[in-house]
TrEMBL record:
Pfam families the UniProt entry points to: CorA, CorA-like
Domain CorA-like transporter, residue spans: 40-140
Membrane topology: Multi-pass membrane protein
InterPro entries documented for this protein: CorA-like_dom (IPR058257), CorA_TM1_TM2 (IPR045863), MgTranspt_CorA/ZnTranspt_ZntB (IPR002523)
Cellular component, GO annotation: membrane
Name of the protein in its database record: CorA-like transporter domain-containing protein
SUPFAM superfamilies for this protein: Magnesium transport protein CorA, transmembrane region
Subcellular location: Membrane
Length: 366
């Protein structure tokens, strides 16, 4: 049907480019890309096509989405014939309803405006940019205020997730500025198209239409400047928040280091006490063993000839302790072997063994 329409009406191939910008998407691909203004002139006939991006609010989800509408316009300044084809992203779009109402009100009228659909499209969707930017600004201002009044050494509700929110807002403002810059170029070309389509007609209507498109350009430029300014403010706030979080982490690290120093001093004190009391404790324990006894006659200490058992056991136990430590420490040969056995899948080995056995049984002659 679409190809038949192109063939019967001899439409420019740029209309296919408009269709290529409408497809099902599950990601934000080509969110900024818009079809630039294309124009083809042949005598008194001018064919123009473009897509216009704009924000639209979904009340049921309370969120904004970026949509686009495509327009194909063919105008013959000699015969006064005008053809419009509008591509909408959803059925019963607001611009379609407004255009149908405009046509119904102009039935039987004498005065015609060859660029009326462009005006309706801009009047319907263009003011939404202000509310979209304002909604993003309402998300940004509380974060900006909390970041500015936040002190490093005081408790704060700010965390790294707020930095992610600021980066997301920054991307939205940058996207908005890019889309509006592209729209401004399209509006400039539409103003020139208006001068061509209304050439030789009502001079008042020509001047009025050109003024309207120039006003739309000014609004577009104003929205773009606002989005750019907010983008720079978000960038500054993000940098300030990142620095604040970094300094806060450094302050926490400093406090932890101070606590470690205090703990080290305590450990040094305890170690000093241990070194002070350890030799007397060892001497008292050593001579308090049953290997020693006091001769009541001579008043001398008598040692048992079996004291070598204590010396031997002490040497063996000490050797075993240090040997176990050096054998099982990280990076040693035995430690690597134990880690390999721990990671080994015994169930997999069992199944592999059963499989190999089944293969061997199947290979036996019957």
């Amino acid at each position: 049907m679409f190809e038949l329409l192109i063939e019967k009406l001899s439409l420019n191939k740029s209309i296919r480019d408009i269709v290529s910008f409408f497809y099902m998407r599950n990601m934000h691909t080509e969110e900024v890309l818009s079809m630039p203004y294309n124009e083809r002139r042949k005598g008194s006939v001018v064919e123009a096509s473009y897509t216009l991006r704009y924000p639209e609010h979904k009340p049921d989800l309370d969120k904004w989405v970026i949509r686009q509408t495509g327009v194909y316009h063919r105008c013959d300044s000699t015969s006064g014939q005008t053809l419009f084809i509008m591509f909408n992203p959803v059925p019963n779009a607001k611009a379609s309803i407004t255009a149908a109402e405009w046509l119904s009100s102009r039935v039987g009228g004498s005065e015609t405006d060859p660029v009326w659909l462009h005006k309706i499209l801009l009047e319907t969707y263009f003011p939404a940019w202000r509310f979209y930017i304002a909604s993003l600004e309402r998300q940004f201002l509380p974060l900006s205020y909390n970041t500015l009044v936040n002190f490093i050494n005081e408790p704060s509700t700010l965390n790294p997730s707020h930095l992610t929110t600021l980066v997301n807002l920054s991307n939205h403002f940058l996207t908005t500025s890019s889309i509006l810059n592209s729209s401004e170029e399209t509006l400039r070309e539409l103003s020139n198209l208006c001068a061509h389509c209304l050439k030789g007609t009502n001079a008042d209507l020509l001047q009025e239409s050109i003024s309207e498109f120039e006003n739309f350009q000014r609004q577009c430029r104003m929205f773009s400047h606002t989005a750019t300014d907010l983008y720079h403010r978000v960038q500054t706030t993000s940098q300030l928040l990142a620095n604040t979080l970094s300094f806060r982490e450094q302050l926490d690290s400093r406090k932890q280091n101070e606590n470690m120093l205090r703990l080290n001093k305590s450990v040094v004190f305890i170690t000093t006490l241990t070194l002070l009391y350890l030799p007397p404790s060892f001497i008292a324990t050593f001579f308090g063993m049953n290997f020693f006894d006091m001769d009541s006659v001579t008043g001398r200490i008598i040692s048992s000839p079996m004291i070598w058992i204590y010396v031997l056991c002490s040497v063996l136990l000490t050797t075993a302790t240090f040997g176990t430590y050096y054998t099982m420490r990280e990076g040693s040969f035995l430690n690597l072997k134990v880690s390999g056995l721990r990671d080994l899948s015994w169930r997999g080995l069992f199944y592999r063994k059963q499989h190999n056995r089944a293969v061997e049984l199947n290979a036996l002659p019957v």
